[in-house]
Amino acid sequence: MPMTATTVLTARALLLDMDGTLVNSDVVVERCWRRWAERHGLDGDEVMKVVHGRQGHASMAVLLPDRPMEQNHADNARMLAEETADMDGVVEIPGAAAFLASLAGLPHALVTSADVALSTARMAAAGLRLPDLRITAESVGASKPDPEGFLKAAAELGVAPADCVVFEDSGAGIAAGRAAGMRVVGVGPRAGAHRPDVLVRDLTQVHVEATSDGAIRLHVD
After folding, report:
1. Active-site residue list
2. 183 φ, ψ to 5°?
3. For 40-78, what is each residue's pLDDT tens digit?
4. How far, in whole angstroms, is CA 88 from its chain's centroid?
5. Partners of 53 in the β-ladder
6. Alpha helix locations (H) across the chain?
7. Given 6, 44, 67, 205, which residue has the most CB atoms within 10 angstroms?
8. Helix, strand or coil for residue 221?
């Protein structure tokens, strides 16, 4: 729901998606996936409706349902290498660096569908600090919209799912956060179509306050 006044959420941990939430990598994602769509005779616009938030092999399974999964995994490995080599146009989402700085010493994690190499490269390209706890593609058996990544992050932080707030931009990510039993702050225009609990334009609208009992108070303008 769009906010007209400050909204306050209290949490014990924040779980942060990367692409579209902390890092604007849309130009790279568009370049790589539209090339992939052309190679497979698919409509690029339809492909782009599917790929945000999911691991590549999971997107391919949706788009090419009759193709064996081993081919999707092999194709995904090539796609990840292609994306990791292309950082042209990767920048931070406005407010991301200050937001991450404000979380120093507070329980938080990166929960991304990217692998270690891609997430490390994109965060560096955007000039962003990597959280100490990172749940990447290698950490899970199921891609978003499955809640596994968020639930694993909460467990490793020792925080109940209901006490976590997720930051996400994609339909798959918002569905994963909701399935994990967590509240979701949607970031950016993609998020608005998927009814997050709170919607922000970017991270300049979010301010963090540590409470005396160790909780995190989020002020959303």
Report:
1. 17, 19
2. -80, 150
3. 999 999 999 999 999 999 999 999 999 999 999 999 999
4. 20
5. none
6. 26-39, 44-51, 56-63, 69-84, 96-102, 116-125, 148-157, 171-179
7. 205
8. coil
